[in-house]
């Protein structure tokens, strides 16, 4: 995790992800989950993504208000 955070802070990589993989004996399959994710692209795009999300939900909110 420490190495991933250092890599994320550097300018060398655009994104870093640490994935934990556990093999579950009962079902004989691996289970994975992301335990760290860092991305300069996501950080730069965050304001635009919020605007887009609000724009998508606005028609739903307007519809709900008209139905009241």
Give an overview of the whole structure:
The protein has 68 residues and is of the alpha+beta class. It is 53% helix and 31% strand. The chain is built from 2 helices and 2 strands, in the order αββα. The chain has a two-stranded antiparallel ribbon. Strand 1 and strand 2 (29-39) form a beta hairpin. The relative contact order is 0.15. The mean pLDDT is 83.
In short:
This protein has 68 residues and is α+β, with helices and mostly antiparallel strands. The chain is built from 2 helices and 2 strands.
Q: What features would you highlight for this structure?
A:
alpha+beta, flat, two-stranded antiparallel sheet, 68 residues, 31% strand, 2 strands, 2 helices
Compute the gyration radius: what is it? 19 Å
* Average pLDDT metric: 83
Order of helices and strands: HEEH
User: Which percent band covers the strand fraction?
Assistant: 25-35%
**Strand order of the main beta sheet, please?**
1-2
N-to-C span: 50 Å
What helical percentage do the residues reach? 40-55%
Write down how many β-strands occur, each being a DSSP E stretch of 2 or more residues.
Answer: 2
Low-confidence stretches: none
Which structural category do the helix and sheet elements fall into? alpha+beta
């Amino acid at each position: 995790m420490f190495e991933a955070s250092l890599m994320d802070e550097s300018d060398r990589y655009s994104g870093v992800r640490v994935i934990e993989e556990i093999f579950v004996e009962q079902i004989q399959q691996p289970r994975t989950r992301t335990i760290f994710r860092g991305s300069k692209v996501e950080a730069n795009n965050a304001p635009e993504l919020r605007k887009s999300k609000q724009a998508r939900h606005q028609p739903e909110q307007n519809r709900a208000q008209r139905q009241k």
